[in-house]
């Protein structure tokens, strides 16, 4: 029997809206789950997904992708990547897997919500495949690190991180709960697929794929390239949803969702991808600086997608671009200094050559972040490593759950952005973070940061040991300098020009 | 006598930090407690200078000998710690 071409039957097969008779339409699609924003079912039916596929096609292509990724892994199992790779590269793998693997699982739930409660048949169709995609991503990124667990317990955090109260895991959960899980189908289409995926996942998945190939880790490179091909398909769920909202007079609502999601995504990626690209990746393997990458993908490309859809740039756009210069440097310094509290070994990325590269890519780096690192280097040279370790907690932002930090040294601009709300004081990293809170205070107000929990007596004993216990970081998992301070030796006989900041 | 947590925004450092002090500490003692977590760790010492304390955004410093409980500083308020000529 001859088969029809997909284009000949797709539109009819996709038309899966019907008029319910046993329940009302609002019971079938409760607003809290669909987030239709008062736009009627008929108006949602014009939603036209730009990427069309059928289930048999999907399964065939995905099977090939999986076979590709798994066979590269199998073929390279004896390549001794683990033994030969720079420790900084292994740290990228550990931080990536821990932060991302179960985030994919959350994304699967989010896609499932669109598959069930999406108001547009096309959205439900696309999201069904998206749900299967995200399940694949979670499985791959749990399976691939697993082979390293017997050699290095930190790889176990691919699965463990989200089940712990480690601060980075709290930050990731807070953001992903907000963008993926505790949202309606329409909100998810806008916040997860459009803002987070179209805008930002390239950052982690294309940027790191390039660095992985350069580094010679072809297993990881092929894995995340494989994942990215799914992302670039299901990320297209959000665009047509935004068109429906804008056409039906809901631009302001849509814009707000986009603005909140971009701001939240930017924080996650500046923590995760920024240090990976500018510090952990060995100097000779770096393709672009994180800032250059952001400028190309966010300013160059994503900005155009926003405008083409008829949206405005977020009100904070210039502020965010200004943060490309410093926020990830501050997060890197924080992660390195508080290194016992992470499940990977931060690579300082601080040889004299690295600093020259940083100064070239970020003019003024030596006079700002370099000033803090000078003190750290002096302490390590003087045999006082204890002064390079923390004895208190950083203040954590009530929105992004990351330390409130900015530029030190000559450009010192660190500032708290406080807010008193209902008798409680909140602290934010920037005007942008505070603005997100103010859009929906009821949603965010009861969450307690690590510092709030510490002050409430939930972390016992109230010291670093208690904090490590609270974060479930066991011996063998606690982070330390990736190169065991070998990089400091380059400074021993060539003292840096020291001046008081 | 009561535990009194403040937030340290220490000049030239990169991050806000939690500094638990006592309500009966003097402002100079609060400054020393904040310095402990910044100076010599990420901020170079400045011999001959004294660290003065002010509310974030303020111009005026708190008197150095005032007790914390005598000021209107609230727990978990962000204070700036600034190097000044002695
Ligand atoms: Fe994914
Ligand atoms: Fe995805």
Describe this structure in words.
- The complex is a heterodimer of chains A (501) and B (86).
- A two-stranded antiparallel sheet of chain A has the order 1-2.
- The N and C termini of chain A lie far apart (80 Å).
- With 501 residues, chain A is mostly helical.
- The mean pLDDT of chain A is 94.
- In chain A, 59% of the residues lie in helices and 2% in strands.
- By secondary structure, chain B is mainly β.
- Chain B has one domain: Ubiquitin-like (UB roll).
- Chain B is 12% helix and 34% strand.
- Chain B contains 1 helix and 4 strands.
- In chain B, a hairpin with a 6-residue loop joins strand 1 and strand 2.
- Chain B is globular and about 30 Å long.
- At the A-B interface, helix 17, helix 19 and helix 22 of A face strand 1 and strand 2 of B.
- The complex binds fe (ii) ion (2 copies).
- The site of one fe (ii) ion (FE2) has 6 residues of chain A, from helix 7, helix 8 and helix 12.
Number of separate helices of chain A: 23
Distance between the termini of chain B: 29 Å
Q: Output the strand order for the largest sheet of chain B.
A: 2-1-4-3
Series of secondary-structure elements of chain A, N-terminal to C-terminal: HHHHHHHHHHHHHHHHHHHEEHHHH
Largest interface: A-B, 39 and 26 residues
CATH topology of chain B: Ubiquitin-like (UB roll)
Query: Which ligands appear in the coordinates?
Result: fe (ii) ion
Count every beta strand of chain A, where a strand is a DSSP E run of 2 or more residues.
2
What is the highest CATH level, the class of chain B? Alpha Beta
The helix/strand order of chain B is EEHEE
- Determine Rg of chain B (CA atoms, Å): 12 Å
């Amino acid at each position: 029997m001859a088969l029809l071409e997909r284009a000949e039957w797709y539109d009819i097969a996709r038309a899966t809206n019907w008029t319910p008779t046993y329940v009302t339409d609002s019971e079938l699609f409760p607003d809290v789950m669909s987030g239709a924003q008062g736009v009627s079912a008929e108006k949602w039916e014009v939603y036209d997904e730009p990427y069309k596929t059928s289930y048999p096609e999907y399964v065939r292509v995905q099977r090939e992708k999986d076979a590709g990724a798994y066979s590269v892994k199998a073929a390279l199992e004896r390549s001794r990547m683990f033994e030969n790779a720079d420790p900084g590269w292994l740290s990228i793998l550990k931080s990536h897997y821990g932060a991302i693997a179960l985030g994919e699982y959350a994304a699967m739930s989010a896609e499932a919500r669109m598959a069930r409660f999406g108001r547009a048949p096309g959205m439900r169709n696309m999201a069904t495949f998206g749900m299967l995609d995200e399940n694949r991503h979670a499985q791959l990124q749990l399976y691939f690190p697993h082979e390293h667990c017997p050699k290095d317990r930190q790889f176990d955090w691919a699965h463990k991180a989200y089940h712990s109260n480690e601060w980075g895991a709290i930050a990731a959960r807070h953001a992903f709960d907000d963008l993926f899980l505790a949202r309606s189908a329409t909100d998810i289409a806008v916040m997860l697929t459009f803002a987070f995926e179209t805008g930002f996942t390239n950052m982690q998945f294309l940027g790191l794929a390039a660095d992985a190939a350069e580094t010679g880790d072809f297993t990881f490179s092929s894995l995340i390239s494989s994942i990215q091909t799914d992302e670039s398909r299901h990320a297209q769920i959000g665009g047509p949803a935004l068109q429906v909202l804008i056409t039906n007079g809901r631009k302001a609502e849509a814009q707000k969702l986009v603005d909140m999601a971009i701001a939240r995504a930017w924080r996650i990626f500046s923590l995760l991808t920024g240090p990976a690209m500018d510090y952990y990746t060995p100097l000779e393997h770096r393709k672009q600086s994180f800032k250059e990458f952001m400028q190309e993908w966010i300013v160059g490309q994503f900005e155009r997608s926003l405008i083409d859809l008829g949206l405005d740039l977020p009100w904070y756009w210039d502020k965010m671009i200004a943060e490309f210069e410093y926020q990830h440097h501050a997060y890197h310094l924080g992660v390195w200094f508080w290194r016992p509290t992470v499940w990977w070994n931060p690579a300082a990325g601080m040889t004299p050559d690295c600093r020259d590269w940083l100064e070239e890519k970020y003019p003024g780096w030596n006079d700002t972040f370099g000033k803090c690192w000078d003190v750290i280097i002096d302490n390590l040279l003087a045999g006082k490593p204890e002064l390079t370790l923390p004895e208190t907690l950083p203040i954590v932002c009530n929105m992004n759950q990351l330390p409130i930090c900015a530029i030190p040294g000559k450009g010192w601009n660190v500032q708290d952005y406080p807010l008193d709300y209902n008798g409680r004081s909140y602290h934010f990293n920037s005007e942008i973070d505070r603005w997100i809170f103010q859009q929906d205070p009821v949603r965010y107000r009861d969450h307690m940061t690590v510092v709030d929990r510490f002050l409430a007596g939930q972390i016992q004993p109230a010291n670093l040991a208690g904090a490590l216990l609270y974060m479930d970081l066991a011996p063998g998992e606690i982070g330390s300098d990736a190169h065991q301070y070998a990089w400091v030796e380059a400074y021993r006989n060539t003292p840096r020009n020291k001046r008081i900041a | 006598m009561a535990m009194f947590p403040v937030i340290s925004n220490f000049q030239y450092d990169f991050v806000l930090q939690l500094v638990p002090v006592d309500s009966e500490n003097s402002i100079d003692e609060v400054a020393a407690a904040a310095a402990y977590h910044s100076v010599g760790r990420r901020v170079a010492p400045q011999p001959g200078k004294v660290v003065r304390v002010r509310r974030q955004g303020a111009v005026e410093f708190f008197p150095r000998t005032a007790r914390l409980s005598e000021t209107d500083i609230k727990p978990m308020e962000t204070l700036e710690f600034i190097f000044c000529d002695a």
